[in-house]
Amino acid sequence: MATRILPLELIDKAIGSQMWILLRGTKEVVGTLRGFDDYVNLVLDDAVEYTPDPDDKTKVIKTKLETEILLNGNQIAILIPNGSGPPEDSLAAQSG
Amino acid sequence: MSDPTPTDSNKESTAKKRSPSDFLKSVLGRPVRVKLNSGIEYRGVLACLDGYLNIAMEQTEEFGLDGQLKAKYGDCFIRGNNVLYISAQKRKGGS
C-alpha cells in the first residue's frame, strides 16, 4: 500500500527552503519558509513581492521586504516548494 | 469565518521552527508594516492584535499604491480580513 502524505506534511518538509507562493488575484511572493500553522498562514524570511505595475500591466514590480513577514493564509492560492519566482518576471495569472 | 490564527489554547503539532503565533508575539510593541489586499500599506507601532489579524496601531502612517504618504493617524484599527501581510520594520533584532 502506498504511503500517504498529507498536504501539510509536504509544506512541513519545505521549512527552511525557498517557497514560491501564488496569491489570489495576481500577486506572487517568494521567500524562505520559516513556519506555518493549520490555516497555512506563513512566516517568511527575505520575502520578495511581485505585483503587476498599475500603469503598465505587462510589467512586474518587484519589492524586497527585507524582514520577516507573516503572510495571511486567506490570500494564498498555490504553494510551490523550491520555486524561485515568476520566470522572466511574468506573473502566472497574467500569462496565457 | 475567515482565518483565525491558532491561539495558545490551540497548540498545533505542525509548527516546528517559527510559527505565525511566535511571530506575532515577537512583533508586539514594535514598528511594523501592514499591507492590505488593496495594496495600501500602514506603518506604525503595533499596539495589539488577535488571532484574526485584527490590528491596533499607533503613530500610523498610510501609504498609497504609489508609495506616497497619504495620511497620518494617532491610533487606528485594521480589521483582519483586509490584511495581506505583517512585516517587522527594518532592523532584524529579535527575530
From TrEMBL, chain A:
<keyword id="KW-0508">mRNA splicing</keyword>
<dbReference type="InterPro" id="IPR001163">
    <property type="entry name" value="Sm_dom_euk/arc"/>
</dbReference>
<keyword id="KW-0687">Ribonucleoprotein</keyword>
<keyword id="KW-0539">Nucleus</keyword>
<dbReference type="GO" id="GO:0000398">
    <property type="term" value="P:mRNA splicing, via spliceosome"/>
</dbReference>
<keyword id="KW-0747">Spliceosome</keyword>
<protein>
    <recommendedName>
        <fullName>U6 snRNA-associated Sm-like protein LSm5</fullName>
    </recommendedName>
</protein>
<dbReference type="GO" id="GO:0005688">
    <property type="term" value="C:U6 snRNP"/>
</dbReference>
<comment type="subunit">
    <text>LSm subunits form a heteromer with a doughnut shape.</text>
</comment>
<dbReference type="InterPro" id="IPR047575">
    <property type="entry name" value="Sm"/>
</dbReference>
<keyword id="KW-0698">rRNA processing</keyword>
<comment type="similarity">
    <text>Belongs to the snRNP Sm proteins family.</text>
</comment>
<dbReference type="InterPro" id="IPR033871">
    <property type="entry name" value="LSm5"/>
</dbReference>
<keyword id="KW-0507">mRNA processing</keyword>
<dbReference type="GO" id="GO:0046540">
    <property type="term" value="C:U4/U6 x U5 tri-snRNP complex"/>
</dbReference>
<feature type="domain" description="Sm">
    <location>
        <begin position="6"/>
        <end position="85"/>
    </location>
</feature>
<dbReference type="Pfam" id="PF01423">
    <property type="entry name" value="LSM"/>
</dbReference>
<comment type="function">
    <text>Plays a role in U6 snRNP assembly and function. Binds to the 3' end of U6 snRNA.</text>
</comment>
<dbReference type="InterPro" id="IPR010920">
    <property type="entry name" value="LSM_dom_sf"/>
</dbReference>
<dbReference type="GO" id="GO:0008033">
    <property type="term" value="P:tRNA processing"/>
</dbReference>
<dbReference type="GO" id="GO:0006364">
    <property type="term" value="P:rRNA processing"/>
</dbReference>
<dbReference type="GO" id="GO:0005681">
    <property type="term" value="C:spliceosomal complex"/>
</dbReference>
UniProtKB/TrEMBL annotation, chain B:
<dbReference type="GO" id="GO:0030490">
    <property type="term" value="P:maturation of SSU-rRNA"/>
</dbReference>
<keyword id="KW-0747">Spliceosome</keyword>
<dbReference type="GO" id="GO:0046540">
    <property type="term" value="C:U4/U6 x U5 tri-snRNP complex"/>
</dbReference>
<dbReference type="GO" id="GO:0008033">
    <property type="term" value="P:tRNA processing"/>
</dbReference>
<dbReference type="GO" id="GO:0005681">
    <property type="term" value="C:spliceosomal complex"/>
</dbReference>
<dbReference type="InterPro" id="IPR001163">
    <property type="entry name" value="Sm_dom_euk/arc"/>
</dbReference>
<dbReference type="GO" id="GO:0120115">
    <property type="term" value="C:Lsm2-8 complex"/>
</dbReference>
<feature type="domain" description="Sm">
    <location>
        <begin position="19"/>
        <end position="92"/>
    </location>
</feature>
<keyword id="KW-0539">Nucleus</keyword>
<dbReference type="GO" id="GO:0000932">
    <property type="term" value="C:P-body"/>
</dbReference>
<keyword id="KW-0507">mRNA processing</keyword>
<keyword id="KW-0508">mRNA splicing</keyword>
<keyword id="KW-0963">Cytoplasm</keyword>
<protein>
    <recommendedName>
        <fullName>Sm domain-containing protein</fullName>
    </recommendedName>
</protein>
<keyword id="KW-0687">Ribonucleoprotein</keyword>
<dbReference type="InterPro" id="IPR047575">
    <property type="entry name" value="Sm"/>
</dbReference>
<dbReference type="GO" id="GO:0005732">
    <property type="term" value="C:sno(s)RNA-containing ribonucleoprotein complex"/>
</dbReference>
<dbReference type="GO" id="GO:0005730">
    <property type="term" value="C:nucleolus"/>
</dbReference>
<dbReference type="GO" id="GO:0005688">
    <property type="term" value="C:U6 snRNP"/>
</dbReference>
<feature type="region of interest" description="Disordered">
    <location>
        <begin position="1"/>
        <end position="22"/>
    </location>
</feature>
<dbReference type="InterPro" id="IPR010920">
    <property type="entry name" value="LSM_dom_sf"/>
</dbReference>
<dbReference type="Pfam" id="PF01423">
    <property type="entry name" value="LSM"/>
</dbReference>
